[in-house]
Every structure is written in C-alpha cells, then in structure tokens.
Amino acid sequence: MSSSSSAAAPHSPVVRLEGVTKSFANGTLALDRLTLDVAPGEFLSLLGPSGCGKSTALRIIAGLSHPTSGRVDWPSAGEGAGAHARSIGFVFQEPTLMPWATVFNNVWLPLRLKGRSKASVRDAVMDALERVGLAAFADAYPRELSGGMKMRVSLARALVTRPKLLLMDEPFAALDEITRFKLNNDILKLQAELGWTVVFVTHSVFESVYLSSRIVVMAARPGRVFDEIAVPVPRPRNESFRTSPDYVALCREASDALTRAMQAAGREVA
Amino acid sequence: MAADASAPAAANRTAAPTDASVWRDRVLRVVVPLVILVLFVGVWDWYVRAYGIKPYILPGPFLVAETLVKDWGTLSGALLVTIRITVTALLLALVGGTLLAILLVQSKIVELALFPYAVVLQVTPIVAIAPLILIYVPDTQAAVLLCAFIVTFFPILSNTTQGLKSVDHNLLNLFELYGASRWQTLVFLKIPAAQPYFFAGLKIGGGLALIAAVVAEFAAGSAGAGSGLAFRILESQYRLNIPRLFAGLILLSATGVVIFWLTSLASHLALRRWHESALARET
C-alpha cells in the first residue's frame, strides 16, 4: 500500500477492502473476496438480500470483526492507527442506547470514553442534539422517546465525535415509513452539513436510491459484489426527487439488479 | 428538523390519572389489609374466649400484645441482636457477593475455579453446616453471623453475575468501537446493566439473611444463651411461656417485613427512572 501517513491524495479512498473473505466457524462463507473502495464524501449503499454479508462487511470496516483473509486499508489515516482512532461513527439497526442513562449522557458516552468531562463537552453534546432536533429532550430517558427519536439520539451519538466515516447498519429498518422518510431527509441534510462519508447497509431499494451516490448490489451464498449502480443525481435531494421519473428509473434498475442477484444465489444453492 | 409527532411520555405527565382516583388507590392500599388484620384478630380473640383455650396452648391477641409491652426490655434487646446479625450479614454478602461477581465475569479461570464451590456451599442446608461452624468458630455471635452470611451471599452473587453477563451485545460492540477500556466497560456498562439483577438478589438475600440468622441461633441452642430473638423464642417454648413466644414471633415477622420494604425501596429508587419493573404500565 502506498499510504503516506498524512499527505493522502484527495481522491485516495477513505477505506479500501481488498479480497476480504470471511468464513464463520460453522463453515458459512459470509464474504468471498470482497473488494471495495470507499471514496471520500460519497454515500455508498450496500444493497442485498439477507445473508449476502453486507452487515459483515460493515462490521469488518468498523473493526468489530476480522477478515479470515484479505486486507482492510485506510489510505488516508496514519499507519497502525487503532480502529477507534480512525474516526468512525457506527449506527446499529437498533438505537442501542443505555436505558439507565439520559439522552444527554448517552450522547456524551463516546467522548466520556475518551476521558472528556461532562462540562467540557456540554456544548458539543448539545450541538449534536440540536442537529437531530432533540435538544429539548436532553434530560429524558430513552424509554420516554418514540422509536424515531431513539434513532435520532443514536445518530447524535455517532456524530458527536465528528467522524469522517459513518457506518450505518440498516438503521431505519424497524421504523414506520413516515418516520423513515423523515430520517432519510435528515441524514442527507447532515451529510451535506458535516461532510460525512457514509457506508449504508440496507435491503430497501427505494431507500438506497434516494440516499446514495453509489449502490453496490450484493448476492448471497457466498456473499459477494454482484453489481454496481451509480446514482448521478445532484444534491440536495428532496421529496420532489422521490416522485421524479429519474428516481423511478433508478429504482427499477436497482430492483432488477437485486432480483438477478437473488436468482444467482438461488441457482447456486439448487 | 422537528421532533417526531408521537409525544414522549414525559410530556404527558399532566394527563395522569385524576387526584381523586390516586387517593382512592392509596386509601384502598391501606384500608384493605387493615380490614383483613382486624377481622383476623377478631376471629382469633373470639375463638380463644368462646372455647376457653388455655394461654399455654394459644394465647389471645390481647395477652400477646400485653406480653409484648411487659417483656419489651428482654425482647427488644434480643431483637437488636438479631437485627444486627441480619444487617451485618446482608452488608457483608452485598460487598462480598458483588466483588466476587465482578471477579468472576472478568476471568473465566476464576469463574471455573470458584463458582462450583459457591454452589456447593449454597445447596448444602445451613442447618447441617451450622453445628460444625459453631464448633470451629469460638464466638457464638460470629458463628451465627457466618451462617447468615453464607446463605445471603449466594443469591446476590449469582444474580449479580447473571446481570453482569446480560449486557446488550450491541452496546458491548459500541464500547469496543469507541475504544473503551475493560474498566470503563465495567463501570459504565456492565455494572449499570446488572442493577436490576443485583436488586432482585438483594431482595431475596434480605429475607434469607433473617431466616439464616434465626436458623443459626436455633442450631446454637443454649450456646447462644441470652442472645437473639430466636433464642428467646426457643427459651419461651421450653418454659411454656407461649404468649412471649408469640410476641417474639410477631417481632420477627415485623423485622422481615421491614427488611423487605427497605430492599424494595432501594430497588425502586435505583430503577424507577428507567427499568420496566419499576414503572407503572400505561393503560
């Protein structure tokens, strides 16, 4: 890897997966030689049926899981930097909040683990809550919030560390459609404001087209990249994009790719 | 961006049940058990009078109350001894059980080495071990305390261990992702997550501490001369002083109720803001 520690070229990827293979103890081949570059500033969706290894890929990028073979490189980060030093934010499928802690304390957590006192980060935490529209709920407990609001707290917690790379694992899968649309818009707005690079795992064609600049369609058994679709629609996007002919055409393209990916997997099983 | 349409419970508190219904609920909570108590005492008194039951078989409720007042000097001293042993055993078990639980979840080896023996200690009936402990430990009070501790220790240990292990895996991932140290994971995640389990153990342990203290005193028998409430009860039985036996029994039950109430209160205060067990269900 020609990764010079600080003076990375503007177009060198944030993270590069090279031939990443992951097999589990029970013999399942979750990922088969996955190669993927994540470019700075892009919104990359991993779209695929369950079992295609998209969540596994995300966990490997996050350092929560380790590849059986292949490598993960961080060309724009220093050599040997720990996973948490790489400035990653992670949003899980569930809000994953500590039920015994207030909204404020939940958002404070990542900074608290770095040894920052409550007083010294008050502004940063309140700013994060402000951005997700929950400043008024700083003292509430998670159980007092709706599902969508819990997810917003989870987002605030991810953005409070000012990550360069945000990893999201089907974050809105459990929410109703109205809340989901709203949060989709929020994500786009936050990405524009904060300049995130996002890797977004989803099984929703519509969500992936609405949000992404690039969609990687994955197939299952073994998990692999099946197709790639560019979404060259300029930002900001809004509700009018959702009803545009472009959107419909791209959804059809992504949906077709997904169908073919599923058939490909099905044939191999049969 | 605006907050979600569905308002949180916090904003709804003004729309809680009306004052009148809250009061009615509170009054019922006191009145219903009181009515049962009065009925019970009434039937008891009537039975003793109507059938001319001798006081050394079954004393009437008023004779028991009278004895409680008359013998208060002896009984309160004994009560104090029993309470002291119970509370000391509970506190020691609390500290010991929690610390050992933390140790067990930190190291698999420690768990393998110690947990089976903690189980052995627990499943062997304390009445059977008590005579041995009374022989080996020269001071009777210390022996009784040790018995009470052994019994109280286990529920707190096993509950807290279970709690420390029952942490949401996603939260563990989150802590790992943000580079939390073992110590931080323990203090900020595992210990708070274990609280509901710990308090369940405390409630069981509180009741058991009193029972074990009484059992150990019984086992000590005349060796514990002039000590706790259990000894006074035994002594009253030997002397056929049944009214005093009843008075002692009532004091023991009252102590048990107070311990239960205190541990429940501690649990409620610690969990009321977040845990489902401490929250009223909205209907």
Write the layout of secondary structure elements.
The complex is a heterodimer of chains A (270) and B (283).
Chain A: E1 15-23, E2 29-38, E3 43-47, H1 54-62, E4 69-73, E5 88-91, H2 103-112, H3 118-131, H4 147-159, E6 165-169, H5 177-194, E7 197-202, H6 205-211, E8 214-219, E9 224-230, H7 239-242, H8 245-269
Parallel strand pairs in A: 3-7, 3-8, 5-6, 6-7
Antiparallel strand pairs in A: 1-2, 1-4, 8-9
Chain B: H1 19-50, H2 61-70, H3 72-106, H4 108-123, H5 126-136, H6 140-165, H7 169-177, H8 182-220, H9 229-238, H10 242-271
The top-level CATH class of the largest domain in chain A is: Alpha Beta
Q: What is the radius of gyration of chain A computed over CA atoms, rounded to a whole number of angstroms?
A: 19 Å
Class of secondary structure makeup of chain B? mainly alpha
The ordered string of helix (H) and strand (E) elements of chain A is EEEHEEHHHEHEHEEHH
Main sheet strand line-up of chain A: 5-6-7-3-8-9
Q: Kindly state the mean pLDDT of chain B as a whole number?
A: 87
Largest interface, C-beta closer than 8 angstroms, per-chain residues: A-B, 42 and 30 residues
CATH topology of the largest domain in chain B: MetI-like fold
Rg result of chain B: 24 Å
The level-1 CATH class of the largest domain in chain B = Mainly Alpha
Oligomer: heterodimer
Q: Shape of chain A, please?
A: globular
Spans where pLDDT lies below 50 across 5 or more residues of chain B: 1-15
Shape of chain B: flat
List the uncertain runs of chain A.
Answer: 1-9
- How many distinct beta strands of chain A? 9
Share of helical residues of chain A = 25-40%
Count of helix runs of chain B: 10
The CATH superfamily of the largest domain in chain A bears the name P-loop containing nucleotide triphosphate hydrolases
CATH superfamily of the largest domain in chain B: MetI-like
